[in-house]
Write a structure and sequence with these properties.
It contains 4 helices and 11 strands. By secondary structure, the chain is α+β, with helices and mostly antiparallel strands.
């Protein structure tokens, strides 16, 4: 199951104890003449956690957030300057549990085309688009195995240009692919 990588018994214990940290990301979909694309970010290289990795804008829920949708939109505005008024939320993907103990709610939103990004350089090195057709192509999705935190995990990679989309972000993209096509990539 792509949403539950890593040490499943540990994650189940955390879930039973209510210790998974709630988080949310925005899966921004942009309508382009050549076809829909997804907006992703590359995290700043100086960050302590996941430096340089590809991600969706988002983060942990704050006490002031009304829920996952509110958190995803707030974090998106903070990280890349995309106002919530430019996003029409159209749905949610299944929660994604990370090996680091987060329970992430992916919020899918259609972005109005007349926007200008303002990246928070303390968090985000760059933003870029990936064509949705690339993510939907089963030939582009790879299943990998490695040891992480002393645990053997299976995860996905989706290479695009010079970017390597992997881990939780690739897992959420696989979840999006499954929601749109009903197909699971070969493992």
């Amino acid at each position: 199951m792509p949403g539950v990588p890593g040490d499943l018994p540990r994650l189940l214990r955390l879930a039973r104890m209510g210790r998974l940290v709630p988080a949310a990301v925005l899966v921004p979909v942009l309508a382009r003449p050549e076809g829909p694309s997804l907006l992703l970010t590359r995290r700043a290289d100086h960050l302590a956690h996941h430096p340089g990795q590809i991600s969706f804008p988002g983060g942990r829920l704050e006490a002031s957030d009304a829920g996952a949708e509110d958190a995803a939109l707030r974090e998106t505005e903070e990280e890349i300057g995309l106002p919530r008024s430019h996003v029409e939320v159209v749905g949610f993907l299944d929660n994604y549990v990370t090996i680091t103990g987060y329970c992430v709610t992916p919020v899918v939103g259609i972005v109005r085309p007349d926007f200008e990004l303002r990246l928070d350089e303390t968090e985000v090195a760059e933003a870029f688009e990936v064509p949705l057709r690339h993510v939907l192509d089963p030939e582009k999705v790879r299943s990998r195995k490695k040891r992480l935190f002393g645990v053997k995990i299976v995860y996905f990679e989706i290479p695009y240009r010079h970017y390597n989309i992997w881990g939780a972000t690739a897992g959420m993209l696989v979840s999006l692919r499954m929601a749109l096509t009903g197909e699971m990539p070969d493992e």
